[in-house]
Amino acid sequence: MEIKSILIKEVVAKDGNKIKWFTHGSKKYISINIKDDAQIVFILNGNKEYLLSRALHLDAVIFQSDSIILGLSRNEQLQELQEKTKDKIVVVLLENDESSLSTLVPLEENLTTCKYLIPIKIEDLYLNYSLRKNEQITILKNGTDVINFINHVKDKDEFILTLKDVIKGKLRNLKIKDGSLENGSF
């Protein structure tokens, strides 16, 4: 499996430079795809990540950009998001940049109804995978995200296995024994 960008149209800024990505529709919209019986919910950020979550049938909340998370307390979908994540383990997949890390505070402040909020840095996934596969550990470039990781792994089952391992490790560190990872809930 390899995830690539989808170009809808070329967008050029007023200064003549091409825009890497372009937000279509509402700049406040949050995609919330969570089944009522979900135990684990993932928080991702980006349009490709939306496609990934749908392809892997993940219960997920997808934000178009970090700025939407930073303004979460004023978002009209906040109440729905709180209701949908109530009593669930929320796993935040963080990109390798400061902007992504800055989203943790507003998520912690606004997702007060969730059972646990577990941040996972992309480095955690690479490290787990590299150690299991005896690969050389490399320093990640700024902006490395979950799409880069799944493209590195090239196998959805390996991606899910790595993700489960890291989540189990985080739960152990929190001294939480949760069977939701054992029964295939994602």
Description of the structure:
With 186 residues, the protein is α/β, with parallel strands linked by helices. It has a single domain (30-173), classed as 3-Layer(aba) Sandwich (Dna Topoisomerase Vi A Subunit, Chain: A, domain 2), CATH 3.40.1360. Helix content is 38%, strand content 14%. The protein contains eight helices and five strands; from the N terminus they run ββαβααβααβααα. Strands 1-3-2-4-5 form a five-stranded mixed β-sheet, with helices on both faces. α1 (47-55) links the parallel β2 (40-45) and β3. α6 crosses α8 (156-173). The longest helix has 18 residues, at 156-173. It starts with 29 loop residues before the first strand and ends in a 13-residue tail after the last helix.
Name the descriptors.
alpha/beta
Q: In a nutshell, what does this entry contain?
A:
By secondary structure, this protein is of the alpha/beta class. The chain has helices at residues 47-55, 66-70, 78-85, 98-101, 104-110, 122-132, 146-153, 156-173; strands at 30-33, 40-45, 60-63, 89-94, 116-121. Helix 6 (122-132) crosses helix 8.
Average pLDDT rating: 86
Q: What pattern of helices and strands is seen along the backbone?
A: EEHEHHEHHEHHH
Low-pLDDT sequence parts: none
Structural class assignment: alpha/beta
Rg result = 17 Å
Described by strand count, sense and barrel closure, the largest sheet is: 5 strands, mixed
- So how many helices? 8
Into which percentage range does the β-strand content fall? Answer: 5-15%
Distance from first to last alpha carbon = 18 Å
Number of domains: 1
CATH architecture: 3-Layer(aba) Sandwich
Shape: globular
**Tally of strands:** 5
Order of strands side by side in the largest beta sheet? 1-3-2-4-5
The CATH top-level class label: Alpha Beta
User: In the CATH scheme, what's the topology name?
Assistant: Dna Topoisomerase Vi A Subunit, Chain: A, domain 2
